Amino acid sequence: MSVPKRYTVTSALPYANGPLHIGHIAGAYLPADIYVRYLRLWKRDVAFICGSDEHGAAITLRAKKEGITPKEIIDKYHILNKKAFEDFGISFDIYHRTSDPLHYETAQEIFKTLLKNGKLTVETTEQFYDEEFNQFLADRYIMGTCPKCANPNAYGDQCEKCGTALSPTDLINPHSILSKKPPVLKTTEHWFLPMQDSQQWVEEWIKTGKFTGMEKPIAWHDPEEWKGNVKGQCLSWLKDGLRPRAMTRDLDWGVPVPLPEAKGKVLYVWLDAPIGYISATKQWAKDAGKDWEPYWKSEDTKLLHFIGKDNIVFHCIIFPIILKENGGYILPDNIPANEFLNLEGDKISTSRNHAVWLHEYLEDFPGRRDELRYVLTSIAPENGDSEFTWKDFQTRVNSELLSILGNYVNRVMVLYHKYFSGKIESATDQLDFTDQALHDFVGKIYDALGANLEQYKFRQAQFDAMELARFGNKYLTDLEPWKLFATDPVKVREILNNNLILILHLAAVIQPFMPDTAKKIFRMVNMPKEVYGWEDELTLPNHHQINPAEHLFSKIEDDVIEKQLLRLEEAKKLNMEPTNIPAQKESISYDDFSKMDIRVGTILTAEKVAKTKKLLKLTINTGIDERTVVSGIAEYFSPEEVIGQQVLILVNLEPRMLAGIESQGMILMAEAPDGSLKFVSPTEGKSPNGAIVK
Questions:
Q1: What residues contact 376, with CB distance under 8 A and at least 6 apart?
Q2: What are the tens digits of pLDDT across the range 51-88?
Q3: CA–CA distance from 540 to each of 417, 426, 442, 537 (Å)?
Q4: DSSP per residue over 114-173, as a string?
Q5: Are 284 and 93 in contact (CB under 8 A)?
Q6: pLDDT bucket at 531, cuts 50 / 70 / 90
Q7: DSSP states of 38-71 as a string?
Q8: What is the pLDDT of residue 57?
Q9: Which region, left, alpha or beta, applies to residue 173 given φ > 0 means left and ψ of -120 to 50 means alpha?
Q10: What residues are paired with 631 via a beta bridge?
């Protein structure tokens, strides 16, 4: 196939109801970033699109749990996750959000067009209703046993164990998450997408890449390029037969259904969320002075969705139906979905805090994001579940990045300065390979690398890139220039010149995988550009002065790894029943208690206290004033996490100096038997600041 004129690359919109962990990164974001960086090296026209998914029951559940509003939840985690992506170097062209007015407008337009085109039906159905809470239950408010794999904790829209898409009535022994009781069926009216009408063309399209009567601008794809797990899950779903699916829900949080008779109903999150790709593209194009439509409506655009396996059927079946039936949109060329990443012999679990959180990694390993990029790519769950362990992380960094890549670059740079003071001398105006075998080997690496990246084989592609470092180490060791310098310095210069050019190509090919490391190498060789495209000439002029050598990587010591393993063990203990609850303290009088003025407050700002490990400096709105409180919670909460948190604060505590800062009160925390802390805060809705605790 010819090279597309442009690319639209999306990564799954993460729910703004919690922080990002390495499973998310390995599944949907790092592979997409590598691919996009590769496209940019060829100067391709690409839009890299993502943003927060801010509607749906998962958000409202988290809000209920924390006793705050959905808006406060999404604002908190949108900011946290956006910063984590930026700090990790994921190079989105835009990171949008589905609470934006432009998204509401776009989603409602698509709904109305589907309705106008006769692609939605109105049906009165029986849906689950929680009598105790007097509300209809969104899919995620219902749990039960999966009819496919017997997982007892399947949700009403999907089993996260086997990946099967479900309807709430499919569940065996369903119960409401709110009341924990079996729900009842109650009639309600909703708008359905009759997916069974699309069964024939969807099946033909997935199997062959096109379908009978296909009209422009829908692009066709090569089914042989799709991963087996993706096609397999789609065909299994199709084998069961497509059924109507409700595109609206009885909820008070989401994009309102744009019809007067639909008061109190919102668009189903799986209609709403993928449209976020389109609304984000609109915003990006508007900001960049571009036209958004070619990126979604031109047959010479390649549309790609990078996701995890739990989102396959939505991106491969439901969203393509919505796009086609809306008219004018292209369909995805590929959905290179990954499997799941496990952690230390167990599944990553956000509810059990069994995870390596991205923002915490970046805090604990400053300046070492390339090391995590490298390891996650090395173990990417491309065709099956894989596992991250801290010991393996340590081994790969020390034995591969440090000992192979870092060692090779350092050896060449040190020798060049030792023998020639870092100044290039060449018989030609531009330094280039004089060893044809070396030249040919580098060419083969570029070819292999490109072929694997085009097929979304990122593990193999990164291995190909590292082959240059392995080859360079052997090349340098075999020729032993340090033994030749006394008798043949001209030969030594030729050997090192060849290695210097090899280093340039090494830096060029690792750019998609380890961009920071590539920049360090180019800086050492005194090449100042941020990025060197694969069509750029990688030569150095005669008399060019290279910079001194610097270490690309440093060794990761055992104590660093032990600290991370201990954190996971502590998280595991927190989710076990406590066994060493402290005994009750001695009794106090009612008068003693009544002297304490405890109020509801909200944390406005937070920052770490310099030269301390445990202290955060907080500014708290107490309802009566704004005051500074120094709290020993920094080991358990980052500053970003606590902003907006409602707390209970003892306001009439005598001020005291802590680390040179006057602390004007104390916030109440719950201390677990292992010493870890949790906030004590109002749970029944949001209380006004200043409310007195009695």
A1: 22, 25, 26, 30, 341, 388
A2: 999 998 778 877 877 888 999 999 999 999 999 999 99
A3: 16, 10, 17, 9
A4: HHHTT--EEEEEEEEEETTTTEE--GGGEEEE-TTT--TTEESSB-TTT--B--GGGSEE
A5: yes
A6: confident
A7: HHHHTT--EEEEEEEB--SHHHHHHHHHHTS-HH
A8: 77
A9: left
A10: 616
- β partners of residue 155: 143
Most distant CA pair in the chain: distance in Å? 94
E strand or H helix that includes residue 294: helix 294-297
* Amino acid in position 436: Q
Q: Are 87 and 268 within 8 A, CB to CB?
A: no
Question: Range with the lowest mean pLDDT among 71-85, 438-452, 561-575, 673-687?
Answer: 673-687
Per-residue pLDDT reduced to its tens digit, 330-365: 999 999 999 999 999 999 988 889 999 999 999 999
Q: How many CA atoms lie within 13 A of 130 on its CB side?
A: 20
Q: In the structure encoding, which two tokens stand for residue 271, read together?
A: 């209609």
Mean pLDDT calculated for residue range 225-246: 93
Q: Compute the distance between CA of residue 513 and CA of residue 190 in angstroms, rounded to an integer.
A: 46
Strands 154-155 and 142-145: antiparallel
pLDDT score, position 421:
96
pLDDT tens digits, residue range 448-497? 999 999 999 999 999 999 999 999 999 999 999 999 999 999 999 999 99
Find the length of the chain.
Answer: 694
424 falls in which pLDDT band (50, 70, 90)? very high
pLDDT at 576 over 60: no
Can you tell me the distance from the alpha carbon of 371 to that of 367, in angstroms, rounded to the nearest whole number?
Answer: 9
Contacts of 364 (CB under 8 A, 6+ apart): 563, 564
pLDDT at 677 over 70: yes
What 3 state SS string does 166-232 have?
CCHHHCEEEEECCCCCCCEEEEEEEEEECHHHHHHHHHHHHHHCCCCCCCCCCCCCCHHHCCHHHHH
Mean pLDDT value across residues 214-236: 87
pTM (whole model) above 0.85: no
Buried b (16+ CB within 10 A) or exposed e, 99-108: bbebbbebbb
Give me the mean pLDDT over the 229-241 stretch: 93
Q: Output the pLDDT for position 594.
A: 78
Q: 283: which 2 tokens?
A: 């915003």
* 60 in Cβ contact with 70 (< 8 Å): yes
CA distance 19 to 84: 9
**CA-based R_g, the chain, Å:** 29
Task: List residues bridging with 647 in a β-sheet.
Answer: 601
Q: What contacts 171, CB < 8 A, 6 or more positions away?
A: 142, 143, 144, 145, 146, 147, 154, 156
Tokens of 473: 């180490």
Distance between alpha carbon 296 and the CA centroid of its chain, in Å? 23
E strand intervals along 346-448? 346-347, 386-388, 430-431
Token pair 């089993």: residue: 159
Find tokens 């902003």 and name the residue. Answer: 643
Residues sharing a CB contact under 8 Å with residue 48, sequence separation 6 or more, in sequence order: 9, 11, 32, 33, 36, 91, 92, 93
**pLDDT at residue 686 above 80?**
no
Enumerate domains of the chain plus CATH numbers: 119-262 (2.170.220.10), 405-541 (1.10.730.10), 590-679 (2.40.50.140)
